[in-house]
Amino acid sequence: MVGQIPKELVEELRKAKKIGVLTGAGISAESKIPTFRDAMTGLWASFSPEELATPEAFARNPKMVWDWYAFRRDMCAKALPNPGHLALAELEKRYEQFTLTTQNVDGLHQRAGSQRVFELHGSIARVKCTDTGRLLEGEIPECDEPPPLHPETGGLLRPDVVWFGEMLPAEVLQESAKAARNADVYFTIGTSALVYPAAALPVEAQRAGATVVEINPTETPFSLLATFSLRGKAGEILPALLAALDD
User: Fold this and answer.
1) Buried/exposed code over 208-241 (b: 16+ C-beta within 10 A; e: otherwise)
2) Catalytic pick from 85, 109, 121, 150?
3) What is the pLDDT of residues 134-180, one digit of tens each?
4) CATH topology of domain 1-33+81-121+168-247
5) Is 121 a known active-site residue?
């Protein structure tokens, strides 16, 4: 081991040309962003995510859903990228091909400097027209009785996130799967490996012959399948991995 990084993994990374990454809520939790279900506190403690994160909930009570996402959007905006995010942005600079797929909607990877990011579940910082799907350019308008309307289409604005019962963006999923199949080394970081189709990406990478690295504080259903399963926080293991590469 180099610290907690296996020498064999360091050797694989030094040979690799194509890197793929999948991140989940765990890496954002290290920036003090509660996981989706843990966010149900305070004013929202009596609700479940399924009551607020569906098209049906928005149709039933658009103001309540808008207010919840405004609360979460503010929380994400105040959070800062942690050493795990920063290490991934640095790792990207070292490889010919690097693709990061995230299940998170907080934008922290981009704020850390990552360039090639596929957002499977959208972005909480963006809003779009409910009727047409057209994104809003510029700042979100204020209004007395939210949600506000899209200034061009006149439709209610909603978060540009994937709700329960909605399909993941097809092109993003296709590009993420392609990156997984083409990777020499594939990382799955801070994700439970329970939510499909995202959980299938490291499996696709492994079937295609990649070295698959799991980074997670706890064991997951994928742990026994991973080539390397590293227990700990992304903000500790990923900087250590960079240091090992530089030795």
Assistant:
1) eebbbbbbbeeebebeeebbbbbeebbbbbbbbb
2) 121
3) 999 999 988 889 999 999 999 999 999 999 999 999 999 999 999 99
4) Rossmann fold (3.40.50)
5) yes
